[in-house]
Amino acid sequence: MLDKTKRGWWKSAVFYQIYPKSFQDSDGDGIGDIPGIISRLDYLEKLGIDGIWLSPVYASPQADNGYDISDYEAIWPPFGSMADMERLIAEAKQRGISIIMDLVLNHTSDEHVWFREALKGRDNPYHDYYIWRDGAPDTPPNDMLATFGGPAWEYVPALGQWYYHQFAVKQPDLNWENPTVRRALYDMIRFWVGKGVEGFRLDVIDNIGKEPDRKITCRGPRLHEYIRELSREAFAGEGLVTVGEAWSADVEEARLYSDPSGRELSMVFQFEHNFADCRPGGSKWDLAPLDLPRLKRCMERWQKGLSGQGWNSLFWDNHDLPRIVSRWGDEGRYRVESAKMLAAALHGMQGTPYIYQGEEIGMTNIRLPIGEYEDIETRNFYRERIEAGIPEVEAMASVYARSRDNARTPMQWSGAKNAGFTAGTPWFTVNPNYTGINVEAALADPGSVFYFYQKLIALRKTCPVFRDGDFTLLDPDSEAVFAYTRKTAEEELLVVCNFTGEAVPYPLPAGFEGGELLIANYPAPETGTLRPWECFMLWRGPRK
Ligand code: TEU
């Protein structure tokens, strides 16, 4: 168990993300819930994780699955009660698992009492909690667009004003320029710290300094001033782990967010690597084959750029991204090998790894008729592309590859009905491949993806090189192999990953002959060749 009283304990930690709606239902209403999570803590302890990033469980009308909060200090009833939440925090802590809550500070639901009051009139004390501009009903203040489609401004006839929403219409943005808003948010955070929560993941934190009049959304001029105040006023002195989600961060910006002096956040959660299979200049929906050299260069830039100067998160999957084995691996014949290879490629690097529920058993994407997608972003994207005259097959190819719903199908626990997720009717389709891919089967098979993740987590705890080692990318231009070394004064680690389903010639880099095989996805490496999706880690150092 990690000693969490130690400064920077999260640098040695591995986190696991739970999307509560799809994790485990306990009462048969078809929706995952907090008692369901509690019932699976032993499983997570067996995996070896140190903390859970819990996607939002707050009261919410669920226009964006809980990222639209109507009461920050209440639990959405289908998820359970505040007593359930307190029990989860306590039971997790007993197993050495910290609860990291998701904090959505950029916006609330339009059903939050603050917004309801704000709508009552320009003089209402809550009116200035949100971002309003005067204007005529048919002329938005400017042409800014919302992330989930359509304009970022919504007109309220009774006020003769427009409000700003970066995401859905039902997610009005908070006005961070108003110090009363900031104080209200800090009080709310202290409420959760008082309940024993050990950290926070800060949703779209790069958006809070926006200046809509200058069309600035991310990286506004006051962004870091706000984060420093937040850190001082709400996080200080508690040894909390704080994770800033920042789609807009580059390496330089990330150094500010995760400055080792601790004046902002513990680490940054950024997405640059996630564009290695998108058309340059396009959005995530604009598909391109994976450009492995581009991915490797990106990783190298981050590994070198933050070493000693900040801290990064390591992830392939989350609730907004497709399943990595379907994306950059092989969800068919080599599902197990490629899932392990992708895990090794990521977990060998510096940073704090995040495992998204189901990744540890190699869960895959899903394909549904468009009418069955639940995600607001997917539905709006599809409608807009069809309206723009994009052919149906092309729009659907993007949906299949990139819809956030790929990650949101219920967790596959067993081969029983509904994958053991619920005794009722699941809120969202269960991937039919659950009969083969499920936790019960994985636990019964020593060669499963689960045990590979378990071992990677354990290695991070035993060899300091995983946390501290300097990163060197090998053979940057290879389109098949991602290989790198990590080095400290005492240890050396070599990570070799074949990103293709073909055999590839591969001479071992000098100095690693006779190194100790830490982990591999084939029984033992062969000389001179990598088999399809093969990976291994070789290590040299003082005996443990
Ligand atoms: O995501 C931030 C965000 O920008 C995403 O909407 C992203 O652009 C999109 O998912 C890419 O497909 C966070 C949460 O993780 C997401 O689930 C929320 O919907 C969003 O914020 C709004 O709170």
Structural key phrases:
Immunoglobulin-like; 544 residues; TIM Barrel; globular; five-stranded antiparallel sheet; Oligo-1,6-glucosidase, domain 2; 3 domains; alpha/beta; binds 1-O-alpha-D-glucopyranosyl-D-fructose
Number of strands: 20
Shape, per Cα inertia axes:
globular
The CATH topology of the largest domain comes to TIM Barrel
Ligands: 1-O-alpha-D-glucopyranosyl-D-fructose
DSSP summary: helix tally: 15
Strand order of the largest sheet: 11-10-9-5-2-1-13-12
Topology of this structure?
Blueprint: E1 15-18, H1 34-39, H2 41-47, E2 51-54, E3 58-59, E4 71-75, H3 82-94, E5 98-103, H4 113-118, E6 132-134, E7 153-156, E8 161-164, H5 179-194, E9 199-202, H6 223-235, E10 241-245, H7 251-257, E11 267-269, H8 292-306, E12 313-314, H9 324-327, H10 335-347, E13 352-356, H11 376-387, H12 392-402, H13 439-444, H14 449-462, H15 465-468, E14 470-474, E15 481-487, E16 492-498, E17 504-505, E18 516-520, E19 529-530, E20 535-540
Parallel strand pairs: 1-2, 1-13, 2-5, 5-9, 9-10, 10-11, 12-13
Antiparallel strand pairs: 3-4, 6-8, 7-8, 14-15, 15-16, 16-20, 17-19, 18-20
Helix pairs in contact: 5-6, 7-8, 10-14, 11-12
The chain binds 1-O-alpha-D-glucopyranosyl-D-fructose.
1-O-alpha-D-glucopyranosyl-D-fructose binds at residues 64, 67, 104, 147, 167, 203-204, 247, 284, 319-320, 377, 404.
Summarize the structure.
This protein has about 550 residues and is an alpha/beta fold. About 25% of the residues lie in helices and about 15% in strands.
